[in-house]
Amino acid sequence: MEEKKNGSLREFKAESKRLLEMMINSIYTHKEIFLRELISNASDAMDKLYFRSMEENLGLTRSDMQITIALDKDARTLTISDNGIGMTKDELENNLGTIAQSGSFAFKNENEKADDVDIIGQFGVGFYSAFMVAKRVTVISKAYGSDKAYMWQSDGAEGYSVEDAEKEDCGTVITLEIKNNADEENYDEFLTPYKIKELVRKYSDYIRYPIKMDVEHEKLKEGTGVDGKEAEYEKEIVTETLNSMVPIWKKAKSELKDEDYNQFYKDKFYDYNDPLVHIHTKVEGNATYSALLYIPEKAPFDYYSKNFEKGLQLYSSGVMIMEKCADLLPDYFSFVKGLVDSEDLSLNISREMLQHDRQLKIIAKSIEKSIKNELKKLMKNSREKYEKFFETFGAQIKYGIYESYGMNKSELQELLLFKTSNGGTTSFEEYVSRMKEDQKYIYFASGSSVSRIESLPQTEQVRDKGYEILYLTDSVDEFCLQMMHDFNGKEFKSVSADDLGIDTPEVKEEIKKAEEDSKALFDFMTEKLGGKVKAVKLSQRLKSHPVCITSEGMLSVEMEKVLSAMPNGEGAKAEKILEINPNHAIFAKLKELYESDKDKAADYAEILYNQALLIEGMPIENPVEFSNKICEIMAK
Ligand code: ADP
Predict the structure, then answer these.
(1) Distance, CA 311 to ligand 1 centroid (Å)?
(2) How far, in Å, CA of 636 to CA of 388, rounded?
(3) Which CATH number fits domain 503-636: 1.25.10.10, 1.20.120.790, 2.60.40.420, 3.30.70.3270?
(4) What H or E segment, with its residue span, contains residue 451?
(5) Which CATH code is given to the segment(s) 383-498?
(6) Could you report the per-residue pLDDT of 161-210, keeping only the tens digit for each?
(7) Res 44 pLDDT > 90
(8) Which CATH number is 3-220+233-241 given?
């Protein structure tokens, strides 16, 4: 093993080297985030010391802690100091010598081709970002409780060195030697107070410790500029606090613009895009909390993978106590990002205790309600936005209903949207408001696309009646409706259902009689189809098409398709019914063949069945035999 001597150059681990290269070559606009990263590290270090002080009764208070930024234009240095917990020699080595823990790098490895720049924009890259603007970084640190200080130094290229150093108090001082200006890159900016102030306000305004900087001002020299005397100015150094220290969610809504909310979202939740909506609420009463919630425009890259973890950040009086509190969000709203800050929660609450915390449950319920209300508002007032939202996350809501066996129905049914024969999309409420006077059911048809559904023979009769049909194009749709059963008492009815509730009793009687007349033929066909269909029937719903397939029981043909596409789903079979249009010439032909040529009647049954499958978008068992049989008939 390599001996660790003071001062000698250590090489960076391979993956750190690669990240460094990536960062140094990243586009300029990303470089400025280095300041945010270093300030946030300093703030974390002070949090750690503060927690330690609470645990061990050290008597430190937050007001003792601060971050200081100093600029030296001539030496080209920017220095960030904190009086936080500091680092031991080992910590300097381990924490600043590798970056492998950071999730961003694992992601980069899996997506070798992903644009390097994206990674830097989307994830915090921590301490290493300093090398985007610095040609050399020096860290002097003294860990709390230690009497020794160390200096870590690196020019970012090959490696780093660690040696003994002098430092009075615990904490860390990071000095960046800022790069010289290059063709299109102006690094001098980072040495100007104006730019630093701007960056702190933009990225670190809510940091709860003061970020201080000595700023030079010109001031009128006393006794000049009055009584006709010429004005003279002198320089004065003023220590300014650059951040407001008020977290954005504690600010009044009237103080905040959409851009502020969006910027905070992008910084905090590593998204490149503005969110679709933000929800900023302050609630007092049963539970007291403020929440800042966001609905992303796009699903995170891992949203539909097992790795995705839902949750909101949890703060207690402005101090973060948990990065991802899953209990604050139901699964069907797992796409929501954001944070909750409540005075009702204790700072030192453990994860296990939190799970049973009554207060937290009340907050979670209340948050769920705000999300739902916001979505309803969006549906009503910004339909296009809502449709976009629903396209991205609607499936999650439908799963929410399905997975809970319909238990979440009343919470979620008003949020659902479906494509419709009316064109565009509709909610249940809108559909019901358009229902015809004599219409009993909410009709739906399933298929892989709108055009496919529109050409389904089964829709003919319902369409003829002028009833609207919901188009279920998502695989979960029909399962979801089955769990729901009805909307405010209006039952759902598949256009393939046995009784569509359209025919008058007289018509029904007529059909029944016709069916009895053809019973022998239908029994014969059912038998010849050898268990592939449960029955052959006269169709009430077909107007011009010869045949179609419908089903009986819980499982529809469309559901069979979905299930058989899933692992272990092959066994799922719908109870199929072959329906024949009594007014179509083929029906007369079948009757005739049944009397004159039974073999041919059996062939016709087979062909018609396969045709019905094809119309439905189902595979046929033996395509070769099917086409041969058709050719035989054609050749005659
Ligand atoms: P991250 O902050 O995501 O863990 P960084 O690369 O920013 O990654 O920092 C690595 C580690 O170095 C931190 O987790 C922390 O332990 C340590 N560190 C960085 N800056 C400081 C600091 N100012 N004071 C004390 N420890 C620090």
Answers:
(1) 24
(2) 55
(3) 1.20.120.790
(4) helix 450-454
(5) 3.40.50.11260
(6) 999 999 999 999 999 999 999 887 889 999 999 999 999 987 788 888 99
(7) no
(8) 3.30.565.10
